[in-house]
Design a protein that fits this description.
Layout (H helix, E strand, L loop, with lengths): L1 H7 L13 H13 L3 H4 L41 H10 L10 H9 L6 H12 L11
Length: 140
């Protein structure tokens, strides 16, 4: 475990990005330090570490064996939602096509995201919408 931690564990406090505003940094903190979105939405390498080159680009082998979608703003394979649409989804669990969130994401919304403040959810959505676009096709 020590070797794995040396390779994949980043110890320390969250460091704000001085080039971004408070809302963006709030979203970055919530996504990376508290919600751990990358744990489900980023593929893992052979050693079980997150593949940082595909950060938030989705994975076929997500939690409980389900695929986790690419949530980067990549035009062809990413989530493609506006900040308002993503904010609504995280609060209500309803996608822009009116389909309901299910599985682990449905549970995450029902058990935690829906209880966040509007400001927190909007900060999360804004941060996610500024991620680098990574084309990574997930699913059929």
């Amino acid at each position: 475990m020590r070797f794995w931690k040396l390779l994949y564990f980043d110890e320390g406090e969250f460091a704000a990005d001085d080039n971004q505003d408070g809302e963006w940094n709030r979203g970055a903190y919530l996504v990376t330090a508290l919600a751990h979105c990358g744990e489900c939405h980023t593929p893992r390498n052979i050693a079980g570490g997150l593949d940082r080159d595909l950060w938030m680009a989705g994975t076929e082998d997500g939690p409980e064996g389900d695929a986790a979608p690419n949530i980067t703003p990549a035009p062809a394979t990413g989530i493609g939602w506006s900040v308002d649409q993503l904010t609504f989804f995280l609060k209500k669990g309803t996608k822009p096509d009116w389909e309901e969130a299910d599985g682990v994401m449905g549970e995450a919304i029902a058990d935690s995201y829906e209880f966040l403040t509007e400001e927190d959810i909007r900060a999360i959505a804004r941060y996610i919408n500024t991620l680098p676009a990574i084309e990574n096709h997930i699913g059929g």
